[in-house]
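Final report, section 2: Outcomes. Of the targets proposed, Alkaline phosphatase family protein is the one most frequently requested by collaborating groups, and we therefore present its record in full.
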Amino acid sequence: MAHPAWDDIQPLALDSAPLPAYGTGSLADLLPTLVAHQEVDGFAPAIPELAPADRNCVFLIDGLGWEQLRAHPAEAPFLTSLLGSSRGGTGRPITAGFPATTATSLASVGTGLPPGAHGLPGYTVRNPDSGELMNQLRWKPWTDPHAWQPYPTIFQRAHEAGIHTAQVSSPTFEHTPLTKIALSGGTFRGRLSGEDRMDLAAEQLAAADRSLVYTYYAEVDGKGHRFGVDSDAWRGQLMYVDRLVQRLAEQLPPRSALYVTADHGMLDIPFDEASRIDFDEDWELRAGVALLGGEGRARHVYAVPGAEADVLTVWREVLGEQFWVAGRDEAIAAGWFGPRVDERVHGRIGDVVAAAHADVLITASQREPRESAMVGNHGSMTPAEQLVPLLEVRS
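The predicted structure is given below as tokens.
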């Protein structure tokens, strides 16, 4: 069934998997649009609904999907009051990109590129050079960040064009590889409390006639993973971040635009055998598989050489009623990772890619005990995971 707010997403030939709105309304299109309006060379406004502003601030709330926000108006009265402002006053969301996961989405935001170009196409993916699984959020095992993602960030290009550029986030993130390749450029300002981040973001926004500021909050996602998106803990975080957004909005300097968005949504998956398929206990799914990557709702499956076709057949037979299951070339041709996939990225994508459309996970209780215990999950192309707000406040 089509989602009424998902106008820009076109059904794919492959089992009608919905394609993210790359090029017209995805996270990768946000910063290119903002800096195009700030007259940075080489960019065009990809999200046509957004109007120019001299000072732009992006506040990314990890894990706050469009559907979850709309379902909790009592906990988020200020954010709810902004729903009609989303995507330039159309009252519509944008899409995250595939997979809908933090490392992939933050790289899309910061580089202005879809996953197939920036090269972070999943939570864990195979490094073709070493043959090992690499966790792109924690950057383990180590690999050279700028070889893995060689493109400059939008922040770097804006800074070089004379725009005052700053990132305001937790000090923990200042020197991480993900920050270096996705969010670096200009000045990093570390602050522990959410209130301090909002105050400093407003100061940085006012620091020049043209400015680009990014700020971030993680714990909505953290509580969702641990307790679920309908838990008291998650609701408490939503109430807190609602106050943070209002605090920042009330301090905007003149000629500013604040955009509130997220890297993905989330949904809770029941703890039962029908909803959680354990790869480590399923001999059919394990047959011919050398490495299991990705995450529960967006799996990259790397086959033993020569077994690729058999693994694809089995995964389709076992999971086809609950997952969109594609071979690597099929997923690339269908545009799951964007309109292009760079050569260096090709081997990072699984021989088989499985994206859940039912409320189900492929866990790995022995290999991934921490991830397998999560209540809230994300990664796939369903509306609950894929749609994110683009709320707007102007001064």
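The radius of gyration is 20 Å.
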